[in-house]
Write the structure tokens for this entry.
Amino acid sequence: MTSKTEKLLSLLNGQPVIPVLKIANVADAVPLARALSRGGLRAIEITLRTADALEAIRRVAAEVEDAVVGAGTILDAKQFDEAAAAGSKFIVSPGITSQLLDAAKDSPVPLLPGAITPGEIMAAREAGLRFLKFFPAEQSGGIASLKAFASPLADVKFCPTGGITARNAADYLSLPNVICVGGSWVAPDDLIKAGKWDEIEALARGASKLAK
């Protein structure tokens, strides 16, 4: 297993669910990260889908000591570098490109790229990556596809994201080639907007107890 994969796995540290977050209001970032951390989900992914995403990453990295903040929806090398400079401890991409692989090769920040086809998975494997995002999971064959990959691609592990909910997360986590899952159900938009941090903490606590 490569050192980058080992570093990524150590950052996630046995956490079964990685919250995938879209921060619409930067003021929500710190209390949200604190609520999730109190609930047992220290590692979080803040997606670059809003104008405030990079500032949200900066604030969480600077103000929430317990949090391990990563950046998601990274599409190119420029975004990779910006997210790393903002304090991201890991980088998540929906896919895999040569530009992203080059950026990751020159950075101490590990990359978790998306891969759903055998060719994409093999390309990532050739680049030394053994831990990949499987996205969009439900739309790409879900559990059946991951089961099919387990034998021919036995040394590759996955974090399925996309369509993962409280109802099916445990089924994904039961697979031998799944390390964790990514999901947004632990931090619903309505609870974030209402500032209901105790309810989000309770959702996080439930997710943190899912068996792997």
Observations:
- The first strand starts at residue 17 and ends at 21.
- The chain is about 40% helix and 15% strand.
- The chain has a mean pLDDT of 96.
